[in-house]
Amino acid sequence: MLKTRILTALVLLPLMLAALFVFPADAWAAFSWLIILLAMWEYARMTPLRGMAKWGYLGLSTAFAGVSWWQGWHMPQAAHLLALVFWLLVMPLWLARRWTVKSPGVAAVLGWVLMLPAWYGFLEWRPQADASHALTLLAVMGLVWVADVAAYFSGKAFGKRKLAPSISPGKSWEGVYGALVGVAVYVVIVSRLGWISVGLPVWALVLLALPLTAVSVCGDLLESWFKRASGIKDSSKLLPGHGGVYDRIDSLIAVLAVSNALRVLGGL
Asked: What is the pLDDT of residues 25-77, one digit of tens each?
């Protein structure tokens, strides 16, 4: 299993980096939508969306993404505010009360709330193919990876108190603390390297990164709850050794939405 995971990562990481740094804006929009669409398909498998309703939903979402790109639309501020309300207020309640989705209509709207802000985050953090924007988006994505790795190792070494045992038994509070420390160090490093071009001092970036770390952890928990509620282990088998696309970007979906909303609403 570990060998398979490593081989898959060795294929996917260069592809992601090539797309991030080389693809022109239109190719990047299509590539990033493919990622989101696959995650949306996996999400739909965990909801009451079935048969033609599921495929119609995915087709309608893709048509919207195409028109949005063609017309040069950006997320309005009200939509960014909605994304913040969802991830900072609704999502913790969702996890605490373990809500389930029983209506196809609710499932469809929830999927758009989850996925569309993440896609716009991909586009708006990297509006053109230059190193500055690519590095900034890479720094945002790197925050998720660092949080995940730091949480894993600190949880393995020190984990005693379970974070959400009924949702994801492997996660611990000690893992969360390790993620916070790891991300704080990471942000200092990448800001010194000049990867983050948002015009904020290092201390302010660290203060913003800490709640983003919490959002990253909760994004993972939310997808874990979706899987548990629907009785499946992985969102799909698309990525050998890794499960599905949604399994790999559940935290990133949340962080892209929240970080981009903070950037836009904060005028950065």
From this structure: 999 999 999 999 999 999 999 999 999 999 999 999 999 999 999 999 999 99
Give the integer Cα–Cα distance in Å for 218 and 32.
22
- Residue 129 — pLDDT band, cuts 50, 70, 90? confident
Q: Are 252 and 121 in contact (CB under 8 A)?
A: no
Please provide residue 162's backbone torsions phi and psi, each rounded to the nearest 5 degrees: -70, 140
Which residues lie below 8 Å from residue 9, measured CB to CB, with a gap of 6+?
Answer: 242
Distance CA 43, CA 264 (A): 27
According to DSSP, residue 268 is labeled: -
What distance in Å separates the CA atoms of residue 137 and residue 150, rounded to the nearest whole number?
20
Tokens in use for 140? 């945002």
- Strands 162-164 and 168-172, how do they pair? antiparallel
CA–CA separation, 2 and 251 (whole Å)? 21
Alpha-carbon gap, residue 207 to 133, rounded angstroms: 21
| pLDDT reported for residue 128 | 87
Determine the Cα–Cα distance for residues 166 and 225; give it in Å rounded to an integer. 9
Give the burial class of 211: count Cβ atoms within 10 A of its Cβ; 0-12 exposed, 13-18 middle, 19 or more buried.
Answer: middle
Q: Which amino acid is at 78?
A: A
Q: Are 209 and 183 in contact (CB under 8 A)?
A: yes
CA pair distance 40, 54, nearest whole angstrom? 10
- Rounded CA-CA distance 17/23 in Å is 10
**H-type helices in 86-196, by residue range?**
91-97, 104-125, 131-158, 173-192
According to the model, what pLDDT value does residue 47 have?
Answer: 94
User: Residue 44's closest CA among 115, 94, 118?
Assistant: 115
